Amino acid sequence: GDAGCALARLTDAGAVEIVRAWGLTTGAAGGGNACAAAVSPAATALAGVVVGAVVVDAKTNAASTSIISLETGAVVKTTPPVRGYAPADHGVVKRAWLSSTGAVFSTLVVTEDATLSAHGGAEEIRGERLWSRDESLALAGEVFFAKLPPPKSAAAAAADDLRVKPSFAERYKTQVLALKARFNQAKQEDIETLTALRRGRGAKLLPTRDLKGLRQQIIALAPSGAITSLHNGDGRVLWRRFLGGGTAGGGEYSYASIEKWRPTGDHAHDSEHALVLGVDERNDRTRAVVVDLYTGAIESDVVLPFATAHYLPLPSAAAAADSKTHEASAALLVDAAGASATVFPDTEEARVAAHVDRGVVSFFTVDQSANEIRGYALLPSSASAAETKPSSAEASAFPSSYPVAQTWSSLFPPESGSIVGYASKPSDEVVHSWTRVLGDRSTLFKYLSPNVIFVAASPTTFDVAGAGDASSDASLASFVLVHLIDAATGRVLYRVKHPEARGPVHAVVCENWVVYHYYNTRGGRFAMSVLEMFDDAEHRKGLAVGELMRSSIFAGGNDTETISSFAPPPLRIMGQSYFVRPAATMMTSTYSMKGVTAHQVLMGTATDQVVALDKKFLDPRRPSRKPTAEDREEGLVPYQEVLPIFPQSWVTTRHQVARLRGIKTAPASLESTVLCVAHGLDFFYTRLHPSRSFDTLDDEFSYLLLIATLAALAVGAFVTHGMAYSKDLSRKWK
225, 237, 565, 630: which is deepest, by most CB within 10 A? Predict the structure, then answer.
């Protein structure tokens, strides 16, 4: 209760008897009240049936275990305090388990930040734990890549390179062992030596960023507020921060959102920050924390008097600073009631950005319980969103919050089924080309609206009782209805029905295409479909590449056209369907730095693995007939009803990521390389090369073999030159 917590037992007479009571502590997530003790389940010992009560002393930051007999209520034993349980670092003790061997007791403790520790034996007498491990990564719900700090100076960078640079003997030994391994001639000890040489030396483990963007940190956020930074080179922990403990204002926060952030005044873009949002729904408040991703230090900590449901970055704030990293410095936080959007942070720069973007900001919600999609926008005002940036005097009068109104809704009737899947575009999508050049040199213009969302509906239950032919009725009731909707206006851009199919449906929206996965009931197999959207306006039809080049040259690159969601052009939709073997649980797409590299569709499977499908196999223009010369020039693969999955398509190879929860990708500075991490109970990291490594040499490249080849070519050229000279001389003497 509000006064405290107690351990009670039921007597033989049926009465409830209080065995022991404790007060409340303020070390819970967000500073809320929680029981000061964690009581273990009952265990049998020499003293009878006992429980262990773990209590943390906030003054000494030490935890002690009291062994309490449930038969007498007396404390049988109190273990010595174990250090290292500061509430600000770990929160309160949430769970405890007790085991005994004779008169020796051992305790397993789980703290609020998901740290698992064991007490007991001789280590406990010295006030230390037997062992401890961080399990917050297994609970991480949000994961993304961030840059490592730059070297402090050019001299420091040179010193790091010299420190990790292998000697000539090490390089020679590494090349020899790599050559033996390539031709399957290496023994087990050779493989171990090669692995040790590669790990012991090399720049990939340095704690600073590199020019290629291959060294980065992986940031993971657990719902308890534990933030962990991992080095992607070897997975070691760079820093860790627990946000749950020691926050003024009370409340129990659930942290489910972390976004890249740029603090106000950081015009050099030389730092990495993140905005973490924790929501306390019981007390209707939000905790907004800005964290320095280089060190884990908290730079600002604000409690807002409402529960945040949506985070809306303001694009003009990033554009004003010429940011190319899509890091927002201002945002709108929409409360859970959907009544208002509050400017964060409450600064002049943020209010100006909100004023400029107030006419273009919109968002949507998917209510699967009501089978409805709703669109929202800021209430219109008399001023235009496209007006020039106001002066400082005018900016001080701008409001810090804006009312929100529902602008459209789309209710799916019962005959359409229930919403079984939806997807939208990422806000930081990079597109290299807005056209597609065909084999006959004509062009198709991609429809690249950022407001396109994918929604799929399908019957979730079949009522065929009493029907004459149950299988026939079930087949008629089995379908997937796909919608492409404009999130700004609610307009249905395209609708297609897949008969004899059912959900769940997993999809990914990228550039001008959508790929989605479902189950085909007729074939008894899983299927995937692709839809591509093109602008079919009259002045764009059949436009040749030469005309575009001339227009671009003579117009100075300024021949642009703005397309609005309120007046969309006619669309040309192309689609194709295939069978696929794995069952999908999630889908995402790869993105390179400039968007030149081809995309891959990453699919999490029911076996907790990740498979990569090249976009060229998910092309609706794949010919079902014999490819023509134009098809071959365009690179179209002949159509096959089953998507090919090669052994190298499995991103996680033979490994499984237990309870796969998400797949995150990030571009490296190299255009050919994409960083990928799959997370669940485990973390799996790798690099992807959707278009192969066209701008760098492979890590396994054998320089020794290259030198030997060049030497052999030089010797061969010298020998053949001598032979040709001798033969020519002999011919002339005849």
Answer: 225
The full DSSP string for 360-425 is T-EEEEEETTTTEEEEEEEPP-SS-TTSPPPPHHHHTTS-SEEEEEEEEEEEPPGGG-EEEEEEE-
Return the ∠ at Cα 436 (arms to 432 and 438), rounded to 5°. 145
Cβ atoms of 103 and 52 closer than 8 Å: no
DSSP state of 339: S
The token pair that represents 559 in the structure block? 């021949």
pLDDT tens profile 70-115: 888 888 888 888 888 888 788 888 889 988 777 778 889 998 889 9
Closest to 678 (Cα-Cα) out of 645, 712, 651, 707: 651
Kindly give, in sequence order, each residue whose CB lies less than 8 Å from that of residue 646, ignoring residues fewer than 6 positions away: none
- pTM, entire model: 0.85
Q: Are strands 62-69 and 82-83 parallel, antiparallel or unpaired?
A: antiparallel
pLDDT tens track for 641-650: 999 999 999 9
According to DSSP, residue 67 is labeled E
* Interaxial angle between packed helices 168-182 and 188-200, expressed in degrees from 0 to 180 and rounded to the nearest 10: 140
Per DSSP bridges, beta strands 401-411 and 443-446 are unpaired
- Are 292 and 306 contacting, i.e. CB atoms less than 8 angstroms apart? no
Mean pLDDT of 331-352: 88
Confidence of residue 652 (pLDDT cuts 50, 70, 90): very high
> CA–CA separation, 185 vs 24, rounded Å?
66
Token reading at 426: 């990422």
Q: CA 56, CA 120: separation in Å to the nearest integer?
A: 16
Percent of the chain exceeding pLDDT 90 equals 41
CB contact at 8 A, 220 and 253: no
pLDDT at res. 559: 55
